[in-house]
Amino acid sequence: MLPVVRSRRLLTLAGAIALWRLLDLPIAAPLVFTFLATYLLSVFVLRSERFTLPTRYALPALIAVAVVAIAPRLDALRDTEQLTGLDVVLRDRWRIQDTPAVAPAVLHLDRPSLLYGHAPGAERFDLVFEDSRVAGEDLGHGLFAFAFEPREHTVGEVRYDVDGEVGAADLRVSRPRHEPKWGCVGDGLAVPSEPTDTLFVFDGSTWREEQTLDGPTDCVGLEDGRRVVAHRYSDALSIGAERVRVGFGQARLARRGSTIAVAIAEPPSVVFVEAGAAEGTGTSTRSGTGAADSTSTGTVAATASRVVHRVALDTPPDWIAYAGDTLLVTSRRAHTLARLGHDDPLDFGRPAITLAVAPSGRYAFVTLTDYRPEGDAGPNHHVEEQIAVVDVEAWRVVQRIRTGALGALPSGIFARDDATLDVVFAGTDTLATFDVDLARGAVVDGEADRRVALPIAAPHGVLRFGGATFVSSPADGAFHRVESNETKAFAEPDDVRRGYRAFYEATRAGVACATCHLHAGSDFAPHDIGHDTPRPTLDVRGVWGTAPYLRGASYPTIGALHGFAEAVLDGYARPVEDRPALLEAFLASRGLERPRPSFPSREGVAAFVRADCVHCHAFPAFTNLAQIPEPALFPERRGLHALDTPSLFGVRDAPPYLFDGRAETLRAVLFEHDRAGRHGAVARLDEDEREALLALLEAL
Amino acid sequence: MSRADEPVLRRPLPLTLLLGSCILAIALIAAPEAPLLASLHRTRATGWAALGMLIGALSCPLFGRRIAPWRRAFGVTSAVFATLHVGYVLRTDLVPDLDLLIYEPLLRAGAATYVALVVLGVTSHTVVHRRVRRWKDLHALAYVAGGLACLHVLLSPHAWAPTSLIVAAILVAGVVARALDRRRWS
Fold first, then answer.
1. How far is the C-alpha of A576 from the C-alpha of A499, rounded, in Å?
2. Which of A543, A566, A588 is the last residue of a domain?
3. CB distance from A631 to chain B under 8 Å?
């Protein structure tokens, strides 16, 4: 009797699976109910002993039924049970749970950075490179901080050494690539490549590479032939061979006569430098700070360049340009174009992608992803790219030129004169040249006199030099001379470069990833992407390795977001093999920009732990990659969405905060928007601890 | 009954309940101070306790017939702790709308597991055994519960990453151990 009873159990399981298959619901939970139904069927309908098979047949029968029932529905089951991409989610979670652990997940070799290690109970934690090591600063509670300066290390495999125990640090290494974007014209054409500390210079006949200081972002030419270069990761401004300390985080330059305006991110300001006179000309060899020393030809031995003035700003400046005597400043965070010294900024509602001023100084041209003077926010993911023509004297927008018919994502603009513009579109790899006709009306559609399909991908910068038009492509590491149809490439294609193009490439709906995630950062504008409230765009630099993604953790991988573009934005016209993997590769290469990394204090870490922040924003990634339903955290919210726990790396530069951008500052997050006392336990901190906690968040 | 088949303890249920409750009590006392974190901590502690007991029940076949009575004890204790777990979940706003029990895979798998554990728990008493025909057939539901618990943990955002793999391995090992029990094939 025994084998018969046992086989009935197996047959009940097999029957439950078969019945589950008949339900045609690719969900696992109903198995409980189909099992109960099968059991009741066997007991009350089939009755007893007819529902049997010898065990040696029953077990294979169970396996066969399970395979036949489940195998064809495996994909559907994976989707409905949210198992797709779960391997990536678990891998990322395991990476930070498996101590000793190091975060962020990517080590960028193009910039100085701070990394964090977590090894509870450890006394010493070092990161070990080929022939060097970085000793971790013990911040308490098992957290260590590492100041990494790529120029000091040869990086192959990265290992850790925790109290003598050595192992692989599980860090992805991102190596610098040439990415020429926007440049300048002076004694030749020059375009900096920030990741490789290179200046590409074209003298009219040949191209050459010059090494410069860390993170060149922009350049301008002086009348005496010297070139001024701004640097993100150095506090020195290069004026020819001279170095002038202006501060870290130099973004853009503008020149009027011998006065150079430098837009500085840290602290937000514009610094004015008076360039000293050059004493002679010749060739100098200077010590490069990159891979090799370099030789620079030009005017040397300038003297006494100096900082003459510094103007503090509320938000970091992005583009700056002189219009006559007036310095124009755009702010990505505030979405404004302002005249320095005037309190009447023009608010576009979206950030300026780029800015150019006509040689006369009368008009400024601002490219935008959208601009609605009436203030209407527009529907989900709606964009209306345009060029706002600003009359600088009257200080108002005199015309809006819609550029949708010309291309997508106008990333570079050059004003030949008051009426003729060259515009390159990173989303469609096109160059359009057209005349601005202010008599046509306030809102017009751009009509190109000349529209060129470029052989280089995701063009960013356009310049005129020697009567020719040059376009630069950071995606290809290349330049294209339009009139002679010549392309000069300084790099080979790879997945990161293909991903670069994929990130900027517009869908058929005219929207690219970069439209909102401007240059992989944020446009600081709220978008309704399917939630009940608009939510601020996330900065996607440095997020690789923190699956799942988006505020609702609705995408298990970055590449999966490609599905959104296919389903909602009409997909892409250009077929690309494995676009999701390319997007992953590109975003893994984008790191946080911290011009001057500094260690957080032990007191800050102690306050962080005491306020229970560490339970969710866990060491070392400052997230446990988990989600919490909205009402659990904010009881006034009755939405059904889960909130993903964000990493706090770079949180200082990512306002507004919380899921719907309700908090403008970190202080507001901690002390104003936690009425239910569920977002940490800051109430138990005294004043000193609160300040230490805020300082920690600022330093991350 | 041979000595090798003699149960280690004839009535282990009080012991598993007592020991499990002590461990759970210690875990609950160690909750953080912040209200949400404390609630999450208690939810997780009770969940882990229920899972641990379910693992215990499913892994009994690995240790031979002498441990067989423990299976029911672990199973019943698991159902008790799962009830506590569900209570904390509902109290902590982790399920703001009961519709989520159908639409949210994590909660759906957890709810189905709980239903199975309740059925198993209720039908585990000797009195019920006398009344329910072929209750042993019904208790094969434990494997369905184990599979769904595995899915619940796999999807759980706060779980230690390898947990679901460990649960799945024990589940499979338990099934294989029972399948390879030669006396079943006689």
1. 10
2. A588
3. yes
Residue A381: give the domain boundaries.
374-588
Question: Cβ neighbours of residue A1 under 8 Å, at least 6 residues apart?
Answer: none
Query: Burial code of A67-84, b = ≥16 C-beta within 10 A, e = fewer?
Result: eebeeebeeebeebbbbe
CB-CB neighbors (< 8 A) of A679 in chain B? 36
Interface check B162 vs A, CB under 8 A? yes
Say yes or no: A491 and A389 in one domain.
yes
Do residues A431 and A569 both lie within one domain?
Answer: yes
Query: Which residues of chain B have a CB within 8 Å of the CB of A550?
Result: none
Residue A482: which of A456, A518, A520, A447 has the closest Cα?
A456
pLDDT digits (tens, 9 = 90+) for A177-210: 999 999 999 888 999 999 999 999 999 889 999 9
Nearest neighbour of B35 by CB, restricted to A29, A93, A677: A677
Do A566 and A446 share a structural domain?
A: yes
Residue A165: CATH number of its domain: 2.60.40.10
Domain assignment present for residue A441? The answer is yes
A445: CB partners within 8 A, 6+ apart: A401, A402, A404, A405
Q: Nearest C-alpha of chain A: how many angstroms from B16?
A: 26
Indicate the number of domains in chain A.
Answer: 4
Query: Which ipTM value was assigned to this complex?
Result: 0.86
| Residue A297 confidence class, pLDDT cut points 50, 70, 90 | very low
* Pair A473, A506 in one domain: yes
Chain B residues touching residue A79 (CB < 8 angstroms): none
Check pLDDT > 80 for residue A44: no
A221 in any annotated domain? no
pLDDT of residue A633: 76
How wide is the angle at C-alpha A697 spanned by C-alphas A521 and B38, nearest 5°? Answer: 115
What average pLDDT does the segment A499-521 reach? 91
CB contact under 8 A, B133 and A43: yes
Lowest mean pLDDT among A37-46, A383-392, A632-641, B90-99: A632-641
Q: Average per-residue pLDDT in chain A?
A: 86
Residues A426 and A497 in one domain: yes
Interface of A with B in 525-554 (CB under 8 A): 553
Q: What is the CATH number of the domain that holds A545?
A: 2.40.10.500
pLDDT score for B4: 52
Answer yes or no: is A437 within a domain.
Answer: yes
pLDDT at position A394 is: 94
* pLDDT score of B182: 54
**Any A CB within 8 A of B151 CB:** yes
Phi-psi region of A200 (alpha: psi -120 to 50; beta: other; left: phi over 0): beta
What's the pLDDT at A646? 86
CATH, residue A681: 1.10.760.10
- In whole angstroms, what is the distance from residue B137 CA to residue A635 CA? 45
Residues 6 or more apart from A461 whose CB is under 8 A from it?
A180, A181, A182, A183, A191, A411, A412, A424, A471, A472
* A532 Cβ contact list (under 8 Å, min separation 6): A639
**Per-residue pLDDT tens over the stretch A613-626:** 888 898 999 998 88
Is A616 domain-assigned? Answer: yes
Q: Is B93 on the interface with A (CB under 8 A)?
A: yes
Contact of B144 with chain A, judged by CB distance below 8 Å, is answered with yes
**Chain B residue with Cα closest to A93:** B161
Considering the domain architecture, whether residues A459 and A484 belong to the same structural domain is answered as yes
Q: Is B119 on the interface with A (CB under 8 A)?
A: yes
Interface contact B10, partner A, CB < 8 A: no
Same domain, A657 and A518: no
Q: Do B141 and A35 touch (CB under 8 A)?
A: yes
CB-based contact A90 B116, cutoff 8 Å? no
Statement to judge: residues A405 and A494 lie in one domain? yes
Mean pLDDT of A651-656: 84
Q: Inter-chain contact A42–B111, Cβ cutoff 8 Å?
A: no
Give A-chain residues touching B147 at CB under 8 angstroms: 28, 31
